[in-house]
């Protein structure tokens, strides 16, 4: 009797073990199939990638990537280039600016691309870009029908900022090195971008008039083309931007372009 019970127990254990082995094998096969081609659309609000073992396996495989993100935050200085010269021509002297307070800020909120392997990715992104020109003189920029003009004010501005904002769409090619022992990499990102003007703005602060804001297109180029290069380590890097399109559509400002350089936070 005891022998029969023992045989039943051994048989039951064998059946359960066999079932678990088959289930585990099927799960592994399913996991392998998924890792070959993984469409990873998700929402990400971070400056870096998590590096647990499962995500690392997916990142090393070819796949589409995309979704909502908040990354590639660029903060830097902007420069005006007047027909190849950093010195403004007489026609553009009224745009004289404080170099240390003239800035460029941009970031991406959407991206869609394809990662070929752990080292190479191509993607198109969408985000916003601002160029904030801090004027030296107490001028109020005017947008007439055909030209960009100004009015010299009899008051002193503590802030006199002339700015534009664009919806920008970059197409980037990203190269990454292998991870080091700390799980960090070097990055190099390069690519063109297009931009669509959202608005122009003059913001002034003075004791006499307080805070004032004026919005107009101010003859800023409604569509522009440029390029960006970034390089860095982990989630911190540096960037350089150059816009081939003229800053304004006006005849007097023909050949006046912009560039920017600074720090990038969140490269991946």
Can you lay out the helices and strands and say which pair or pack?
Layout: H1 2-36, E1 40-43, H2 53-59, E2 63-82, E3 103-117, E4 120-134, E5 139-143, E6 148-152, E7 157-176, E8 186-206, E9 210-216, E10 223-233, E11 236-243, E12 256-265
Parallel strand pairs: 1-2
Antiparallel strand pairs: 2-3, 2-12, 3-4, 4-7, 5-6, 7-8, 8-9, 8-10, 10-11, 11-12
Low-confidence stretches: 1-6, 12-54
Number of strands: 12
Helix and strand pattern: HEHEEEEEEEEEEE
Q: Helicity range of the residues?
A: 10-25%
Shape type: elongated
Mean pLDDT: 83
Q: Describe the strand arrangement of the main beta sheet, using strand numbers.
A: 2-3-4-7-8-10-11-12
Report, as a whole number of angstroms, the end-to-end distance. Answer: 68 Å
Largest sheet: 8 strands, antiparallel, barrel
What radius of gyration results from the CA coordinates?
A: 28 Å
Per DSSP, the total helix count is 2
Structure classification: alpha+beta
Assess the beta-strand content as a share of residues: over 45%
Summarize the structure.
The protein is α+β, with helices and mostly antiparallel strands and 268 residues long. It is 16% helix and 53% strand. It is elongated.
């Amino acid at each position: 009797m005891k022998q029969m019970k023992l045989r039943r127990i051994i048989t039951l254990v064998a059946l359960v073990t066999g079932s678990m082995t088959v289930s585990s094998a099927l799960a592994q096969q399913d996991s392998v199939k998924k890792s070959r081609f993984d469409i990873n659309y998700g929402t990400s609000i971070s400056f870096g990638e998590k590096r647990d073992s499962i995500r690392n396996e997916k990142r090393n495989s070819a796949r589409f990537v995309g979704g909502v993100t908040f990354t590639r935050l660029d903060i830097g200085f902007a420069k005006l280039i007047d027909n190849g010269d950093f010195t403004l021509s007489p026609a553009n002297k009224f745009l004289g600016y404080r170099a240390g307070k003239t800035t460029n800020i941009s970031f991406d909120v959407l991206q869609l691309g394809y990662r070929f392997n752990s080292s190479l990715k191509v993607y198109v992104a969408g985000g916003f870009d601002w160029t904030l020109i801090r004027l030296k003189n107490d001028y109020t920029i005017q947008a007439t029908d055909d030209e960009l003009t100004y009015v010299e004010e009899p008051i002193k501005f503590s802030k006199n900022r002339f700015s534009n904002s664009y919806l920008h769409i970059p197409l980037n090619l990203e190269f990454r090195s292998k991870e080091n022992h700390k799980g960090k990499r070097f990055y190099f990102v390069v690519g063109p971008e297009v931009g669509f003007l959202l608005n122009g703005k003059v913001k002034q602060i003075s004791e006499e008039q307080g805070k004032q804001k004026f919005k107009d297109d101010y003859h800023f180029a409604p569509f522009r083309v440029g390029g960006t290069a970034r390089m860095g380590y982990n989630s911190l890097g540096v960037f350089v931007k150059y816009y081939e399109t003229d800053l304004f559509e006006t005849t007097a400002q023909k050949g006046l372009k912009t560039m920017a350089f600074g720090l990038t936070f969140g490269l991946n």
